Amino acid sequence: MTDEICLVGFGAIGALYACALERSSRAKITSVCRSNYQTMHEHGLMIVSDCIGTIDAWRPHRVVRSVAEAADRQYSFIVCATKCVPEVKKTTDIILPLLATLSSSSDTTIVLLQNGIGIEDDILDWLDEHNLGNTVISGCAWVDTTMIDGGKKVTQHGNEKLVLGYHRPQASHTKYATRFSKNTAIKQLDVFCDLLRAGSTNPEAAEDIDIARWRKVLWNASFSTVCTLTRANVGEVLATPTARTLLVEIMLEVLLVARASLPPSPAVTDVLSDSVCIAIIEHENQKSVFKPSMLVDLEAGRPMEVEAIVGGVLKRAKATGVAVPRLEVIYAGLNVIQRGLLGDRQ
Ligand SMILES: NC(=O)C1=CN([C@@H]2O[C@H](COP(=O)(O)OP(=O)(O)OC[C@H]3O[C@@H](n4cnc5c(N)ncnc54)[C@H](OP(=O)(O)O)[C@@H]3O)[C@@H](O)[C@H]2O)C=CC1
Ligand SMILES: CC(C)(CO)C(=O)C(=O)O
């Protein structure tokens, strides 16, 4: 069987995983290409990847200019791999024409490939409001991939892992909870992971995606934010003892919020224990010249994922009454920069 899949957000992550999905030979991808529509038509995309190899002039099955144009059919999966910047546009607003194609009889699954905490909230709210129970999956990518040459090339170096899982209804989603089917969610997660595996990438189905997301945001809320505020690479931050201490202190704050937000379980105790902070720091190459994507966005003058990466943690901190003084300072500092980046968009 061939799955029709729509991809919104044809950047580094979107293109890499769309290519993998299509290389499974069991998926047809419709890609919404915004700034790179013309480039895709004229040149296709060159992919140079340590996991899927080198592919010249790849073009997805169908390339369209807008989400509205893509919404002419039902899809098995709607994949969103834009940067998550609700300060510019909420995910529900970006994919609204596709959401409008959903009905109580459709099995369409929404997949969010984005960093951050609470990135699924507005989609679940929308489904609840519309009395729908479609599965929502999200993925945390542990990969270093970049789109370069004006959208003509994607590079991916080193290891790649995509941890995926489905989101359970939240307490406020009473209508979604009655429509949601855990069996369907598990089945759809399996299908998506199988397609990615067949396309030579390394998906991992998480028992509990919330735990996996908190584990991932530990890195983003600390390294990404401190590197961005100091405009320094990972090695430069690690070489500065006070900044190194700050990284650990931020991670400890995130861990307090994570443990207060999640139902207690052996997995939470295991994956989100304080000792993980030192392990994360020691795992980094101390001389790394790597720049987190938040800093890369700043340097390119693009809005950063402040709300998704820091705002999401702060929302959960407020809801659970956990004090996060360092994250508050980080958030305020990043928002000063973000205001400049948003400019007229505000
Ligand atoms: N790159 C990486 O190595 C990693 C990234 N991530 C996460 O993955 C997510 C995606 O990141 P990444 O691929 O790097 O991002 P990119 O900036 O490379 O790509 C984002 C893409 O989304 C498109 N887009 C944005 N808004 C819209 C819209 N309204 N309609 C249509 N297209 C839109 C952009 O198009 P346009 O060019 O027109 O703006 C761009 O092609 C982020 O959450 C990031 O934090 C996680 C781990 C690693
Ligand atoms: C942790 C990392 C580097 C992906 O592996 C990332 O998420 C980022 O740069 O934003």
From TrEMBL:
The keyword Oxidoreductase applies. InterPro entries: 6-PGluconate_DH-like_C_sf (IPR008927), 6PGD_dom2 (IPR013328), ApbA (IPR003710), KPA_reductase (IPR013752), KPR-Related (IPR051402), KPR_N (IPR013332), NAD(P)-bd_dom_sf (IPR036291). PANTHER family: KETOPANTOATE REDUCTASE C-TERMINAL DOMAIN-CONTAINING PROTEIN, PROBABLE 2-DEHYDROPANTOATE 2-REDUCTASE. Pfam families: ApbA (PF02558), ApbA_C (PF08546). Catalyzes the NADPH-dependent reduction of ketopantoate into pantoic acid. One of its GO terms (biological process) is pantothenate biosynthetic process. It is an enzyme of class 1 (oxidoreductase). Residues 208-337 form the Ketopantoate reductase C-terminal domain. The lineage of its organism: Eukaryota, Fungi, Dikarya, Basidiomycota, Agaricomycotina. Belongs to the ketopantoate reductase family. Residues 5-167 form the Ketopantoate reductase N-terminal domain. Its EC number is 1.1.1.169. It catalyses: (R)-pantoate + NADP(+) = 2-dehydropantoate + NADPH + H(+). GO terms for molecular function: 2-dehydropantoate 2-reductase activity. Keywords: NADP, Oxidoreductase. This is 2-dehydropantoate 2-reductase. The keyword Oxidoreductase applies. One of its GO terms (cellular component) is cytoplasm.
